[in-house]
Amino acid sequence: MGVFTLNKKIPIPFADVVREFFAERPKDVDGQFASSTVYYKDYLTKLLLGRFEITGIPEMWEMEKLENWMLDKLFFHGYFGIRDTTLGVIPLQCSYSGVNPWGRATTLTFDNPELTNIPDATIGVDGALIHLQYDYGTVWRILNRYAGLLAMCDSLISVSLLNSKVTFIGKARTRAGAETIKAIYDKIASGDPAAVFDPGSEEKDAISFDFNNAKQNFVAPEGQELKRNIINEFLTEIGINTANVEKKARLNLDEVNVNNEERYCHVEHWLRTVNNDFDIANKIFGLNLKFQLKDWPQARAEETPVSENKPDGEGGEDN
User: How far separated are the first and last CA of the chain, in Å rounded?
Assistant: First the structure.
């Protein structure tokens, strides 16, 4: 990042400073403001939101497509509130305040431009706070981490592809030598099987050729494989079953079970926290809300028992 001096001698408009700060720089390692990072945030967000669903939604909420709204508020705002209003019992964005003996919030405050004069609600009495994590936090830390790593993989792949195209370097001490090198390269590029030239007495030993080892510099396949491993690690964190290890000829049951335990680290916490809040809302307002993993083919397949792989000749069906 450049250094900016705001003084009378070198006036720099503030808008220019802001544009310079947020400019895309492929050389930056962080990549936080790069377009590739933004792309991966969007990609990972879709993977995350596609993993969960809220069931038991009232008909009025269904008409307003409030499931997507609630998922968005849970994962990217951290929480939302439910209370009775002039429109009936609905979910709304809110803020929380107060503290009980266990350090938890006690009061919900609603500020909605379309619904004025909504009184504060007491959590557990006439209002419910639905939150995703123990600290009322969001998933942005997870998304930022993996999106940044994936963006750096793209940078690695791009640089590798660019470097792999540079395979020939010609050196010349004189202008005539440079022209000779160009003529030789033109002949070879046009398909001539051989190029013969007389360097002359003055050009003797004045030109030379270097051939870069393009294959040695080509690490794009490794970068692509690394990107796949990073995506698999993210999928594991949001509860999607993957072989989050390098491919092996035999993957035993213990290795599969370790992956199963890892992939439910966040998911179990999210499901437990949200459903505990939904239980309170269901009891107060007579609802039937539930937060759960979406039932899709891959989700069903990952629950299929895995038998331990055994050497050939052991186990299997009897002959």
Answer: 70
